[in-house]
UniProtKB/TrEMBL annotation:
GO MF, one example: oxidoreductase activity
Signal sequence, renumbered to the chain: none
Similarity comment: Belongs to the aldo/keto reductase family.
Taxonomic source organism: Timema monikensis
Ranges of residues in domain NADP-dependent oxidoreductase: 67-341
Name under which the protein is recorded: NADP-dependent oxidoreductase domain-containing protein
Length: 390
């Protein structure tokens, strides 16, 4: 088996081209945490493509959610990724590429090149669907586009909700500001997410871009706790505190933008993006180990027990990014890389692409990044949208 994984006795076992690869319990000390598939799926196999077995796939039209590739380029890239052994495919309703992914999956499944249980397909509830009835509606649409009966993991993409307006992904008022839905209720949404596991339309459920407070509120009323949290995480923004929090609550973590998302310059962030691969520490380690800077960056995160989803449409780089299981960073190198963490300042995806003073993610960032922010919860602490006093 290539690029698939199992949880055996609390240890995550990855199967890669190079053969069986096992991370010892010491590194995966939150072994129970990676057992989330088993927990969410009492009868099912524990299949989690961790480490490098991921392939992130984005939309072709420039938008907050996209990088610039045509559907054809994306299909070709996904073919390459699957050939290389990637089995975890991360997508989202808002990326608007589920159709293209569905076409590739259909080809691979019908040709018998891969079986459904070898794949780990992740998609996400869009902000316009962030209400209980939206879960069934938008998961249904995603499944239809992907041509699947179920996904392996369904994530609430963001903690804030937008009002529905026609079919707009980011509904805006005339002045261009986002139509934030201030009645967003995380607890109610989570109940609807749990129902989808019961219905068998997703094997597991999780969150993305949620902060500690927001996760805690979901956990409070959850029958099925979130299995996974997907957040921005890389060498300059290592999310130490949030990762510790997730470990404590048995929530696995998946890192988006693990290479710093340089391709999204001007799209996902308002600031000048740093080139993580050009960092002298990263470069020195890469040269000494005869690896590429990207491999060093990915390996550093993988070695923390965090899944990575590097995005690439380039054949060589897709290949390169998959080969991070056959080397280990020494404690000394890990310490050097750990020291590059800039904390919240290192955040790239600042959500400033949403216009308006009450842009949800802007508020979200303020809340996430400031210990005692002025962000307040509407309705006196009920799980709702956010408002800020600045
Ligand atoms: P490309 O698609 O041309 O390979 P992230 O996953 O952090 O969002 O980063 C994605 C960006 O990094 C894309 O611009 C991608 O470009 C580039 N990239 C992906 N893999 C590598 C690599 N191994 N070396 C250099 N750049 C890479």
């Amino acid at each position: 088996m290539v690029g698939c994984s199992e949880v055996v006795g609390g240890v995550l076992v990855l199967w890669a081209e190079s053969g069986l690869w096992i991370e010892g319990e010491e590194e995966w000390e939150w072994g129970e945490g990676v057992n989330w598939c088993a927990r969410s799926l009492p009868d099912g196999p524990a299949g989690f493509a961790s480490g490098c077995n991921q392939f992130r796939y984005r939309h072709q039209i420039p938008s907050p959610y996209s990088q610039r590739s045509t559907p054809e380029e994306l299909e070709t890239a996904l073919e390459t990724a699957l050939e290389e052994g990637y089995r975890h495919i991360d997508t989202a309703y808002v990326y608007q590429n589920e159709d293209a992914i569905g076409r590739v999956l259909s080809r691979w499944l019908s040709a018998g090149k891969v079986t459904r249980d070898e794949l780990f397909i992740v998609t996400k509830l869009p902000p316009v669907g962030n209400r209980p009835e939206g879960v069934s509606k938008y998961l249904g649409r995603s499944l239809k586009s992907l041509g699947l009966d179920y996904v392996d993991l369904y994530l609430v993409h963001v903690p804030y909700g937008f009002k529905e307006k026609d079919e707009e992904l980011t509904p805006t008022a005339e002045d261009g500001s986002v139509l934030l839905d201030n009645d967003t209720d995380h607890a109610a949404i989570w109940k609807a997410m749990e129902e989808e596991v019961t219905k068998g339309r997703t094997k597991a459920i999780g969150l993305s871009n949620f902060n500690e407070k927001q996760i805690e509120r979901v956990l409070k009323g959850a029958v099925l706790p979130p299995a996974n949290l997907q957040v921005e995480l890389h060498i300059y923004f290592q999310q130490r505190r949030l990762v510790e929090f997730c470990k404590k609550h048995d929530i696995t973590v998946c890192a988006y933008s693990p290479l710093g998302s340089r391709g999204t310059a001007g799209l996902l962030s308002s600031k000048e993006l740093p080139d993580l691969m050009d960092n002298p520490v990263v470069k020195e380690i890469a040269e000494r180990l005869s690896r590429t800077p990207a491999q060093v960056l990915l390996r550093h995160t993988v070695q923390r027990g965090i899944a990575v989803i590097p995005k690439s449409t380039n054949k060589d780089r897709i290949r390169q990014n998959f080969k991070v299981l056959d080397f280990t960073l020494s404690d000394e190198d890990v310490s050097k890389l750990d020291a590059l963490d800039q904390g919240p300042v290192g955040r790239i995806v600042d959500f400033s692409f949403f216009k308006g003073e009450t842009a949800a993610a802007y508020l979200l960032n303020k809340e996430r990044d400031k210990e005692n922010s002025e962000v307040v919860w509407i309705n006196n602490g009920k799980l709702t949208g956010l408002i800020v006093r600045y």
